[in-house]
Amino acid sequence: MKQKIEKSWGCEEIIVHTDKYTMKKLLIRAGHKLSRQFHVKKDETVYINKGVLYLDLSREDTESNIRKLYEGEAWRLSPKTIYIFCAPPDEDVELLEVSTPELDDVVRLQDNYGRHNRA
Questions:
Q1: Higher per-residue confidence, 24 vs 65
Q2: CA atoms of 28 and 59, how far apart (whole Å)
Q3: Could you give the CA distance from residue 83 to residue 56 in angstroms, rounded to a whole number?
Q4: CATH pick for 3-110 out of 3.30.110.30, 3.60.15.10, 2.60.120.10, 3.90.640.10
Q5: 114: part of which helix (H) or strand (E)?
Q6: How much is the pLDDT for 119?
Q7: For residue 62, what are the contacts with CB-CB under 8 A and spacing of at least 6?
Q8: What is the number of other CB atoms lying within 10 angstroms of the CB of residue 72?
Q9: How does DSSP classify residue 117?
Q10: 15, 57, 93, 105: which has the highest count of C-beta atoms within 10 A?
Q11: The model's pTM
Q12: What pLDDT is recorded for position 111?
């Protein structure tokens, strides 16, 4: 069951979605970022497949807690972890995400594309 969804920041491809887990591929276009967000129940791990991911773990704009993750690295985001995925200005980044199955469990705190609490 593959489902590709175009997004303002790139695209998301749902590779597998079951009642136990979900696997997605995310492509974040150069210079774009996702919402500052967290999940109430969803537990996910991302694997950097191509490029470099800037993982912003800052809770507010006034903080600076950014980690660079390179191809082959992974990071777990447990429920209630606030984060932003960012692509560098000069290259796309491709992630593989494996998570618990709660696709709609997104609480957006800030969004550059005018979206509110839904993907």
A1: 24
A2: 21
A3: 5
A4: 2.60.120.10
A5: none
A6: 44
A7: none
A8: 8
A9: S
A10: 93
A11: 0.89
A12: 80
